[in-house]
Amino acid sequence: MSYFLSKLSRLNRRSVVGGVGVVAVAFSLHYSDKYTNFRTIVNARLPLPLQDTPWLTLEAPFDLLPRHWPSFEQNGIFALSSYRVGPVASSDIPKETSGVVHEGSKPCSCDCFGKDTIANAAAKVGPAVVNISVPQDFYGITTGKSIGSGTIINKDGTILTCAHVVVDFQGTRSLPKGKIDVTLQDGRTFEGKVVNADLHSDIAVLKIYSETPLPEAKLGSSTRLRPGDWVIAMGCPLSLQNTVTAGIVSCVDRKSSDLGFSGVPREYLQTDCAINVGNSGGPLANMDGEIVGVNIMKVLAADGLGFSVPIDSVCKIIEHFKKSGRVIRPWLGLRMLDLNEMIIAQLKKKDASFPNVNKGILVPMVTPESPGDRAGFRPGDVVIQFNGKPVESMKEVIEMMGDKVGVPMKVVVKRANDKLATLTVIPEESNLDL
Fold first, then answer.
1. Active site residue 6
2. pTM here?
3. Residue of 181, 198, 202, 381 marked active site
4. Hydrolase: present as a keyword of the record (predicted)?
5. Do the beta carbons of residue 28 and residue 42 sit within 8 Å?
6. Which of 73, 179, 281, 303 is the most buried (most CB within 10 A)?
7. Using H for helix, E for strand and C for coil, what is the string for the chain?
8. Which pLDDT score is estimated for 42?
9. Does the active-site annotation cover 393?
């Protein structure tokens, strides 16, 4: 080793860096071979490109445990806001701007995937992505900051993010966690105000005020997505601002029941983009640079299992906010199950009297004293028409109800031995506190 070090002193600066790399690798291999039951961790400092400049040190935050939605821990799923010990001064955040589309990187007129496709999509969305931080107080003492992401969707300063990043819920009432600092990619910092927040969709709308127009992202459509489509996730995972990761859509309609969530049924976009704590509220974008989802959570002990709220659902929530100041969810008190050929065949095998249907919605359970119970629904009914239109999925029923609370609706059901019944049900607003 002394001989090797003496040789290093004669090498130029570039060679010294290479030599130090060899020493580090050799030491790592020797250590790993001797202690095979232990994992070697190598800490490295990287110089900025071989000039007389300070060493660049990357420090990873250690305390990143979410302080919300403890029920997620039971399913191994965490929401993606982070908790960092100690305040982060706005001056510590680098004033970076997102990349721009290079003049030589002209978009392809044909719908093909090129070397600049992801970079161009990120350049369109990037300026509108913001870093959101909220101080965490304990009896007036600031103990850290809750950090998430968001997207400016209007030049007037309207920002889309996740509710758990910025508010605490007491029942259906939302209480701001504290002062909300919103930092743009160009380094400007604003104070944000919560306009609306919804607990069960975990969507919130913030507002910042600027004397000049702000960058905005374009909203796309999530209904056009297919499994295998390329998407990018943007935000500030682990407090690393202006981060872009890419992946594909793994599933376009992952049910909340698949993830172990009870209560209001929801659907998520599942992707394999690398998302971590701090990505919560950040945008999921397609290759056209349009927002198709809001990143919300990931599976804790798995790679490539992230989930986003589809942008089409988000747009409906925003419409509810504008119209009523909250999300109105009609309630029938019926548990429903979409039927397919396999399920129908199994049910017919167990009970020969099961109605002869090719599609429809099975009602396996009716909540006592609910609107459905008062309307005359029975367990085993198959809904074939709702409000005068044929239906075959719960999603269609939810869309037809919209926010129609107190409006009578005609429902045609098929019962055992193919008996038809026409029922009138009056939806009530769901009490999500229960």
1. no
2. 0.68
3. 202
4. yes
5. yes
6. 281
7. CHHHHHHHCCCCHHHHHHHHHHHHHHHHHHHHHHCCCCCCCCCCCEECCCCCCCEECCCCCCCCCCCCCHHHHHHCEEECCEEEECCCCHHHCCCCCCCCCCCCCCCCCCCCCCCCHHHHHHHHHHHHEEEEEEEEEECCEEEEEEEEEEEECCCCCEEEEEHHHHEEEECCEEEECCCEEEECCCCCEEEEEEEEEECCCCEEEEECCCCCCCCCCEECCCCCCCCCCEEEEEECHHHCCCEEEEEEEEEEEEEHHHHCCCCCCCEEEEECCCCCCCCCCCEEECCCCEEEEEEEEEECCCCCCEEEEEHHHHHHHHHHHHHHCCCCCEECCEEEEECCHHHHHHHHHHCCCCCCCCCCEEEEEECCCCHHHHHCCCCCEEEEEECCEECCCHHHHHHHHCCCCCCCEEEEEEEHHHEEEEEEECCEECCCCC
8. 41
9. no
Tens-digit pLDDT profile for residues 153-183: 999 999 999 998 898 876 556 667 778 999 9
Whether 229 is catalytic is no
Using the structure block, give the residue that is written with the tokens 């990619």: 185
What tokens does 320 get? 């509810």
**Tokens read off for 49:** 């490109």
Q: β-strand 173-176 against 389-390: which pairing, if any?
A: unpaired
Both tokens assigned to 282? 């950040």
Tell the residue number behind the tokens 């017919």, with chain if given. Answer: 348
In the block, tokens 């905005």 appear at 216
User: Which residues in the chain come in under a pLDDT of 50?
Assistant: 1-79, 81-105, 107-109, 434
